[in-house]
Amino acid sequence: MWRTSCGERTLDGAEARVFAEALLCLLDEAVIDQFEDYSSGVSCFDDLSYGQKISVLATVGNGLLRKDVPMVELTAAGEAAIAAVFEKLRDIIILEIDEPDLGTSSRKLVVAARQAMEAEEIPDPTCEDPGEWEVEIQELADAILWDADYESGALYLDQPPEELQALQVLTGVAEGYYRWTPDDLSEEQAAARLAELRNLATQVLERTGQEVD
């Protein structure tokens, strides 16, 4: 379970499907070179070690895609990992637009997820305007993320204790939000967790494909 901006929930249907697809594509980067040549553009995620990235992605994937997982505490690293998944979705859409032979499958997933949210004026899957898709992807991200607090770690961590406490009360940011760090998994542990997470994402795609189609 995840405490999203739309309530305590797990993703289902088309929303789960598009997230699982983007997550699986992001995990492909781990398989290729352990993220060594990949930058998501989300510094709070990119600054983690490889073992930490797999660890936090597992936390995010299980929290958002499995109903049997207890509520996950919100942290900067966790929300940054979610943002990194949506950045990968943006990359996938841009690639589809630049390489027409790839088809429109990812754009169709976005359209299905936005339709499930009863959104209006959704672009057609054949739309080639990146700006149009940026809006739709941001709406998907906003249905999970409260805001972009994960980008403001330096502002909080550099404050004296008394000023930090006042700032946390003012903004509603939990005390451990920035201080929590994912486990730094060994390569063997990371490989096992990566395989489990890829299997979870694949199962979600298979299940939701039957639900959505």
Q: Your description of this structure?
A:
This protein has one domain (2-187). The mean pLDDT is 90. It is mostly helical and 213 residues long. Strand 1 (2-4) and strand 2 (7-9) form a beta hairpin. The protein has 9 helices and 2 strands, in the order E-E-H-H-H-H-H-H-H-H-H. It has a two-stranded antiparallel ribbon with strand order 1-2.
Q: What is this structure's SSE topology?
A:
Blueprint: E1 2-4, E2 7-9, H1 13-33, H2 43-46, H3 50-65, H4 76-98, H5 105-116, H6 130-142, H7 153-157, H8 161-171, H9 187-212
Antiparallel strand pairs: 1-2
Helix pairs in contact: 1-3, 1-4, 1-5, 1-9, 3-4, 3-9, 4-6, 5-6
The major pleated sheet works out as: 2 strands, antiparallel
Counting helices, strands and paired strands, the structural category is: mainly alpha
- Our measurement of the CA-to-CA distance between the termini, rounded to an integer number of angstroms, reads 25 Å
As residue ranges, the low-confidence spans are none
Q: Roughly what fraction of the amino acids lie in strands?
A: under 5%
Proportion of residues in helical segments: 55-70%
Number of strands: 2
Radius of gyration: 17 Å
How are the strands of the biggest sheet laid out side by side? 1-2
Q: What sort of overall outline do the alpha carbons produce when their principal axes are compared? A: globular
Average pLDDT, to the nearest integer? 90
Listing every helix as H and every strand as E from the N terminus to the C terminus, the arrangement reads: EEHHHHHHHHH
Structural domain count: 1
Report the total helices. 9
